[in-house]
Design a protein that fits this description.
Protein name: Serine/threonine-protein phosphatase
Radius of gyration: 21 Å
CATH architecture: 4-Layer Sandwich
Keywords: Hydrolase, Manganese, Metal-binding, Protein phosphatase
Strand content: 15-25%
Cofactor: Mn(2+)
Number of helices: 10
Number of domains: 1
Distance between the termini: 81 Å
Shape: globular
GO molecular function, one term: protein serine/threonine phosphatase activity
CATH class: Alpha Beta
Strand order of the largest sheet: 1-5-6-10-12-11
Number of strands: 14
CATH superfamily: Metallo-dependent phosphatases
Helix content: 25-40%
Oligomer: single chain
Pfam families: Metallophos
Length: about 325
């Protein structure tokens, strides 16, 4: 017994030293990222992925955070909009965040977006929660821009593989005080108890069952009853009646999800039992949509904040003589 106690003490001491080293180094990286705007080295990204994977692997696939916190939807590589969102909502750790996935692809700065969020997660593990979106799977981010961005900037697939190894350990859902259920995609007709999420296997290189698939891909559909095959060709679309039934059966009050562009940055469904939140304004430069953020206070009251896309800079006329 004494030997076991000493071994446990040494292990705890090693963990404390690891946490201290991670926090010290991560603080320096985070400050450099925000202040100096320098690109990360290969070694720094490897370090960020290593620390993140270690942190995610210690978490359940179902996170159960306490309020207050801000819930944000898709970001899709819109790094400057992420900075605007943090400036608008407050920076960690003073403001706590739950992000619902889709950090990469389509936008121009996926690398900066996901590395900044991972740094915040390492630095403030209890104040920043990162769920996995459907674009945090290599079959999508190999096609929609993230892989190409890394190849263009670093020359090979090594770092892309490191990121996806990290993504494979990310949690899929969050349950706030047993009343607000959050995920990237949607609810599942196959989900009947929370342990089905808690026991999902990881690492997860691809969705392993209908529950994980629906959490990542399902959508609410207006003017539909029940469940129908999704127009996406994967998972299901569900009607308002399915939301009411799910909330009653699982004994929850609200569902917060992302996954779809909505013009105001948020959209209510099923008499406010479900909110879609999308946090990438002027998505892909063509939608002219607002960004949304759901603010949950200590009493679980939810309010929605919006911010508009930044106004384009006025074009300056340049005379021939000035060139």
């Amino acid at each position: 017994m004494e030997t076991t106690d000493k071994t446990a003490q040494r292990s705890q001491s090693a963990d404390d030293k690891w946490k201290w080293w991670v926090q010290k180094r991560n603080k320096l990286l985070l400050q450099r990222k925000l202040m100096e705007k320098q690109p990360f080295t290969v070694e720094e990204i490897e370090y960020i992925c290593m620390c993140s994977k270690k942190g995610f692997s210690a978490q359940s696939p179902l996170i159960e955070p306490q309020p207050p916190l801000n819930i944000c939807g898709d970001l899709h590589g819109q790094f400057h909009d992420l900075l605007r969102l943090l400036n608008y909502g407050g920076y960690p750790p003073k403001t706590r965040y739950l992000f619902l996935g889709d950090y990469v692809d389509r936008g121009p700065m996926s690398l900066e977006t996901v590395t900044l969020l991972l740094l915040y997660k390492i630095r403030y593990p209890d104040d920043v929660i990162l769920l996995r979106g459907n674009h945090e799977f290599e079959n999508l981010n190999s096609v929609y821009g993230f892989k190409a961005e890394i190849l263009r900037r670093y020359g090979d697939e090594h770092l892309w593989n490191k990121f996806n190894e990290t993504f494979n350990w990310m949690p899929l859902a969050a349950l706030i005080k047993k009343r607000i259920f959050c995920m990237h995609g949607g609810i599942s007709m196959y989900l009947t108890n929370w342990n089905q999420i808690r026991t999902l296997p990881r690492p997860m290189p691809f969705p392993v069952d209908p529950v994980s698939t629906d959490l990542l891909w399902a959508d609410p559909v207006h003017n539909q009853k029940g469940w129908r095959g999704s127009v996406r060709g994967i998972s299901y679309g569900f009607g308002e009646d399915a939301v009411y039934k799910f909330c009653r059966y699982m004994d929850i009050d609200m569902i917060v999800r992302a996954h779809q562009v909505v013009q105001n940055g948020y959209e209510f469904f099923a008499a406010n039992h479900l909110i879609t939140v999308f946090s990438a304004p002027n998505y892909c430069g063509v939608f002219d949509n607002d960004a949304g953020m759901v603010v949950v206070n200590r009493k679980l009251k939810c309010t929605v904040k919006q911010f508009r896309p930044p106004k384009p800079m006025p074009k300056r006329s340049i005379s021939r003589s000035s060139s």
